[in-house]
């Protein structure tokens, strides 16, 4: 009887096999009077890496907590591998692994014991578990420290162990909340490599981040979340086009030459190229926004040639990335090219 009822529930609540791997439909969370996640609609397809990008307090962790069944939505619903995330929690849960923002490993157990505990929970045979644990510790660069208590690990090592724990049962879907926060550049790179490998193996990954660079580097698609609302969504190429127009080139003028005396020249260059110029007196630096009609490479070459032709020496030449605030302003600036997504996204419930 029990089996029958669970099967009919699957039929009643599940989406068709071709449905996306993760789907949020009007997902909303209200704490008291504050709407922290506001009617989110998005889909992540099989094998995709989707980055939910947003500033502190944007609602990323709250969204993830709902998708991983830790928190009940106030409104809306979600599906994981076709299973209704709330009404079919057990089925949904069996499909995903989670790496939460706070490290969630047992501090008093060794790395090996942490992994062995999970293998046992999932009913893995001893032989398979041993091989898998060895492989994961190796990949995480933790083999030598396998028998040390996890509590003695550095933050980065603990994060790597958390990831190993989450992927040990080979889930179809992996949720990761800010996987590289607080890590040194080498550890970040290692985690990026593991993420790419997971994706290559067909795992669907939803990660949150507040690093534009991280999202741009890893994700197939990005959703920008702000004050609980999805303000922009697109493939990395679509977003790159939009961000491209707000990248800039900063040039530090050589010591002994003041930018004040050169402003007139820079204004002429900016007008010719239909772009904006900014000055940083403290650093004796001039920044030129990348014009929309040029690629970054073309613009960099043009600026170098211009400096040479004007015989202005410089000591530093860098491209600078827009921060999330600038991306958001660009997205909502009414720029015809970009304006499209904002209302569409928030209103849609396909
Ligand atoms: N349990 C709670 N009770 C009340 N408000 C909460 C609770 N959890 C989260 N919030 C609020 O929800 C909003 C979104 O928080 P959330 O933790 O989801 O943001 P985030 O995007 O993950 O930020 P961060 O980058 O800092 O991790 C914040 O205003 C936060 O104060
Ligand atoms: Mg968070």
Architecture blueprint of SSEs:
Layout (H helix, E strand, L loop, with lengths): L1 H12 L8 E10 L2 E11 L4 E5 L6 H8 L7 E6 L2 E2 L4 H7 E4 L11 H11 L4 H14 L15 H13 L5 E5 L7 H16 L3 E6 L2 H7 L2 E6 L2 E7 H9 L3 E6 L9 H10 L4 E4 L4 E5 L6 H14 L4 E7 L3 H8 L4 H4 L1 H7 L3
Parallel strand pairs: 3-8, 3-9, 6-7, 7-8
Antiparallel strand pairs: 1-2, 1-4, 4-5, 9-10, 11-13, 11-14, 12-13
Helix pairs in contact: 4-5
Any descriptors?
Rossmann fold; alpha/beta; binds magnesium ion; disordered C terminus; 14 helices; six-stranded mixed sheet; binds adenosine-5'-triphosphate; 350 residues; 2 domains; globular; four-stranded antiparallel sheet; Alpha-Beta Plaits; 14 strands
Short description:
This protein is α/β, with parallel strands linked by helices and 350 residues long. It has helices spanning 2-13, 60-67, 89-95, 111-121, 126-139, 155-167, 185-200, 212-218, 236-244, 263-272, 296-309, 324-331, 336-339, 341-347, and strands at residues 22-31, 34-44, 49-53, 75-80, 83-84, 96-99, 173-177, 204-209, 221-226, 229-235, 248-253, 277-280, 285-289, 314-320. It folds into two domains: 2-104 and 163-242, Rossmann fold (3-Layer(aba) Sandwich), CATH 3.40.50.300; 248-320, 2-Layer Sandwich (Alpha-Beta Plaits), CATH 3.30.70.
